[in-house]
Design the sequence.
């Protein structure tokens, strides 16, 4: 296997794991109506994190598939993954 395929596979696996964990956390929030008031402040950040992680996982999976099958559009998929990674870093980088 080519090294880029392995690296993209690791990135894809990590992003899919994070997306699933965040989505399941959102489901747990929905199943706890007794704690809705206590969790109200956390719903918006959770939705942002869920959206971002699902988009990042989709970009990683597309990039992985394109590189694995040697598709002509794989460079565009790599660029999309890079943009999504920059957006994720920009969103979660600590600010003063």
Sequence:
């Amino acid at each position: 296997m080519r090294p880029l395929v392995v690296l993209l596979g690791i990135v894809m696996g990590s992003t899919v794991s994070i997306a699933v964990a965040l989505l399941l956390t959102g489901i747990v929030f929905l199943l706890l109506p007794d704690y809705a008031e206590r969790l109200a402040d956390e719903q918006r950040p959770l939705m942002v994190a869920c959206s971002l992680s699902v988009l990042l996982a989709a970009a990683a999976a597309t990039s992985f598939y394109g590189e694995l099958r040697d598709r002509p559009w794989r460079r565009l998929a790599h660029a999309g993954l890079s943009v999504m990674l920059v957006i994720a870093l920009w969103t979660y980088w600590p600010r003063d």
